[in-house]
Specification:
about 0% strand; 4 helices; about 75% helix; single chain
Length: about 190
């Protein structure tokens, strides 16, 4: 299939956006968040560090998924693939954008407000305190949405690999396979 001369730069942008939507969130979740909670003396200090970092990470994710949406759309126009594959490539980035916006606009502000209005440190509040319970719910929700964003980026990665696979690269043809062992050969009877 004939493709435009812009396919290579678009593919580079697409792969860069994939790296942007997969690398930083995995690094944040696996390294930054656990280290800040382990090294800082209180959970409130760790949370005050992570709030701005997470906001900027959401901005990066929104930009990366927006770029993925554009480049996926272009790649699907230039390379024909199964309908389900092109649907996945163009819809998973939308899910990622929505997830990043929800975390940034709907979850981080209430979390920060609960922390600011808490009488003292959150860790010192009783476990049954409504603010502490609500904060834990917001945190679980943000973590779940964050995982969905990483999964959406991974889906785009696998769909991209499938779309870019050369024609006929599905495996050896049936005629090229070696014959299987004959378990019951009655040909000599």
């Amino acid at each position: 299939m004939k493709t435009g001369r812009l396919e290579t730069p678009v593919l580079v942008l697409h792969l860069s956006a994939l790296a942007l939507t997969l690398g930083p969130p995995i690094f944040f979740g696996a390294v930054v968040a656990p280290a800040s909670f382990r090294l800082l003396p209180t959970r409130d200090l760790a949370a005050s560090l992570q709030g701005p970092v997470l906001t900027r990470l959401c901005w990066m994710m929104q930009g990366g998924f927006a770029l993925l949406l554009l480049t996926s759309w272009l790649l699907c126009r230039w390379r024909r693939g199964p309908r389900a594959l092109t649907a996945l490539l163009t819809r998973a980035p939308i899910l990622g954008i929505i997830g990043a916006v929800v975390i940034e606009k709907l979850l981080i502000p209430p979390i920060d407000k609960i922390r600011a209005e808490a009488p003292g440190l959150i860790d010192n509040l009783p476990a049954a305190d409504p603010g502490r319970i609500l904060l834990a719910r917001y945190h679980r929700l943000a973590t779940t949405i964050f995982a969905v964003e990483i999964a959406a980026a991974a889906l785009v990665l696998f769909a991209t690999a499938r779309l870019l696979r050369p024609e006929g690269a599905g495996g050896p043809p049936a005629s090229a396979r070696p014959p299987g062992p004959k378990l019951l050969d009655l040909g000599g009877l």
